[in-house]
């Protein structure tokens, strides 16, 4: 479930408020968005992908909240990790055109 | 909130598309390219909503060579219980081939094969749906995000629009349209299967309220393998899994294909099953990591090495999202029996291309983009045939329960209670995966009880109505599923009857269903000339 909006990174662009398919976030006047309906989070990780400054963290546990701090995540280098793997962001190449995609298909039935 | 924000939003269009996943977006761009004025409404956000966006999927993309096509059609025909239709398979294979090539032309970043040509047998969801949103906007379609439909609007001549609410502002919306395409996806009953919590069967309910039928609702018991803690459902990768008990001994016969039942029976008996992808050869492990980046995300974050470690697994309900039941379509334009109403993607039945079993994403992806574009063409044509008359129609809302005022008896808490009641009938493996006459009858009785409470209740025409209608849609969906499953006294496709474990040749038909307070089910013949063999 969505756990963290990093106050030090967030630029209040409200992309997450727009893109969340289950409308978990709320905009805040003169502030950063808040997680208002965490129970509706379906752990799809889409908000993380669309965050331009890697300020969000969705914990892998879909069934309940996880105790984790921003400092721990920074340490583990996990903020923005998914976006990097998908190849979104300036100077990155989308993973969808990675040569392994084709090689995997050749070696398996995918 | 300003006065302008509070005012209603009333729009007119030729075609209204409800749902902004693959089927809805293909429907919208296709209708717009025929010259229709199109509005697309999405319950969430067109581009991230639905089962496709967060995931990667194969696509049933087969070169137009006779032998390759023959094999492709043959591959799941038996698994699907001989209910697919040869002509529809041909149409969908043709249209998917065309559409995937278009996606390449429009800039989808496909990988290259050894000869340097784009390899087009798969799509990465985030990339695909980001592109589809851009194409929809470029086509001049107006998108309303966070704008679930609550009901269709109709008159004696058929469907003429829909009305709903914008969840981020509370503003009511309505769109009058010559034709409406339902592309709301299937129903996974809020199981948190990846991306599926917006898929609550809303479109089935809308269609039934308008008088349309459903087809194949017994094929609605898809379950995906997932780590117990995780939303990531990617059963295909478990073909490299070994399954273990807690003491490390092997679960004999368990597997991702036919061995899913064995996992279910163990879980039912209270024995936790663990998986490890330890059968994946070393050389393909890095490729698998790239092939489905999201599959590894939860493991990496939990510090689990899925190729070495054993992790607990469960079977998460995917319902009709990976089932094949849905709205019955009556012609090649994906029309329903109700004038002006069309269905596409998982909202429509997929029996036509894969019978009673999908076995994975590639057929679903092909169906979404094909049926979406068929429906887009059909709906645009229908709307254009109405001409100027459509503007003067007197339309009324079709919701089967009352949606009015600022507050109703069905509060958010009440809706949540109904949903838990439905989930208790459709999630347990011994009710839905393994079906029996007695079990189905018990469930139907309890579901009928929930339905009559909903029918006698009311919801305010506010954001609370969204959850109220979702609860109604899930209740109705479960009732069509189980009434149909009760009628099919055999095992075929994914539908398993414990009391009738064999396929019965005399039941080689599709089952239509419908109705609200009283559910009806009847057989529809599979045309002989449409069969593969």
Automatic annotation (TrEMBL), chain A:
Domain 4Fe-4S ferredoxin-type, residue spans: 1-30, 31-61
Keyword terms: 4Fe-4S, Iron, Iron-sulfur, Metal-binding
Domain of life: Bacteria
InterPro entries reported in the protein's UniProt record: 4Fe4S_Fe-S-bd, 4Fe4S_Fe_S_CS, Fe-S_Ferredoxin
Identification of the protein by name: 4Fe-4S dicluster domain-containing protein
Organism per entry: Paenibacillus glycinis
């Amino acid at each position: 479930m969505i756990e963290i909006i990093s106050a030090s990174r967030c630029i209040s662009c409200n992309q997450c408020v727009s893109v969340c398919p289950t409308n978990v976030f709320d905009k805040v006047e003169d502030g950063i968005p808040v997680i208002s309906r965490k129970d509706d989070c379906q752990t799809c990780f889409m908000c993380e992908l669309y965050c331009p400054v890697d300020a969000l963290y969705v914990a892998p546990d879909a069934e309940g909240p996880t105790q984790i701090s921003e400092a721990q995540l920074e340490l583990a280098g996990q903020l923005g990790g998914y976006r990097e793997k998908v190849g979104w962001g300036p100077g990155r190449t989308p993973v969808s055109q990675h040569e392994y995609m084709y090689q995997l298909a050749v070696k398996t039935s995918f | 909130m300003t006065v302008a924000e509070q005012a209603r939003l009333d729009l007119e269009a030729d075609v209204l598309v409800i749902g902004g996943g693959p089927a809805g977006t293909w429907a919208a761009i296709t209708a717009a390219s025929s010259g229709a004025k199109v509005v697309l409404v999405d319950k969430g956000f067109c581009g991230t909503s639905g089962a496709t966006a967060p995931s990667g999927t194969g696509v049933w993309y087969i070169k137009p060579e006779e032998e390759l096509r023959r094999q492709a059609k043959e591959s799941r025909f038996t698994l699907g219980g001989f209910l697919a239709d040869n002509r529809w398979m041909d149409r969908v294979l043709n249209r998917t081939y065309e559409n995937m090539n278009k996606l390449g032309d429009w800039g989808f970043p496909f990988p290259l094969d050894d000869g340097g040509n784009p390899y087009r047998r798969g799509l990465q969801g985030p990339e695909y749906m980001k592109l589809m949103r851009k194409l929809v906007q470029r086509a001049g379609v107006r998108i309303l995000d966070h704008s679930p439909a609550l009901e269709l609007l109709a008159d004696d001549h058929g469907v003429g629009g829909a009305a709903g609410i914008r969840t981020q502002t509370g503003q009511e919306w309505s769109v009058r349209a010559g034709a409406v395409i339902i592309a709301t996806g299937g129903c996974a009953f809020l199981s948190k299967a990846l991306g599926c919590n917006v898929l609550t069967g809303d479109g089935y309910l809308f269609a039934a309220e308008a008088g349309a039928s459903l087809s194949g609702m017994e094929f609605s018991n898809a379950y995906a393998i997932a780590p117990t803690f995780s939303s990531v459902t990617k059963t295909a990768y478990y073909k490299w899994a070994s399954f273990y008990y807690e003491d490390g001994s092997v679960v004999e016969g368990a597997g991702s294909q036919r061995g899913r039942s064995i996992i279910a029976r163990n879980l039912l008996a209270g024995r936790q099953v663990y998986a490890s992808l330890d059968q994946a050869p070393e050389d393909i492990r890095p490729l698998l990591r790239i092939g489905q980046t999201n599959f590894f995300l939860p493991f990496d974050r939990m510090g689990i090495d899925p190729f070495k470690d054993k992790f607990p697994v469960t079977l998460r309900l995917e319902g009709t999202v990976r089932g094949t039941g849905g709205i019955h379509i009556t012609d090649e334009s994906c029309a329903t029996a109700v004038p002006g109403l069309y269905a596409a993607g998982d909202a429509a039945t997929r029996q036509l291309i894969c019978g009673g079993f999908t076995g994975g994403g590639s057929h679903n992806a092909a169906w979404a983009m094909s049926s979406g574009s068929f429906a887009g063409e059909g709906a645009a044509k229908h709307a254009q045939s109405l001409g100027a008359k459509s503007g003067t129609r007197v339309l009324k809302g079709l919701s089967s329960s009352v949606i009015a005022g600022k507050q109703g008896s069905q509060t958010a808490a009440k809706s949540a209670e109904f949903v838990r009641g439905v989930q208790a009938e459709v999630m347990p493996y011994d009710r839905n995966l393994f079906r029996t006459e007695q079990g189905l009858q018990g469930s139907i009785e309890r579901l009928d009880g929930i339905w009559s409470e909903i029918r006698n209740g009311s919801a305010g025409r506010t954001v609370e109505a969204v959850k109220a209608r979702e609860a109604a849609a899930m209740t109705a969906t479960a009732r069509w599923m189980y009434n149909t499953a009760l009628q099919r006294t055999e095992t075929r496709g994914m539908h398993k009857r414990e009391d009738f474990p064999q396929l019965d040749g005399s039941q080689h038909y599709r089952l239509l269903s419908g109705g609200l307070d009283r559910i009806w089910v009847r057989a529809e013949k599979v045309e002989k000339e449409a069969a593969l063999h």
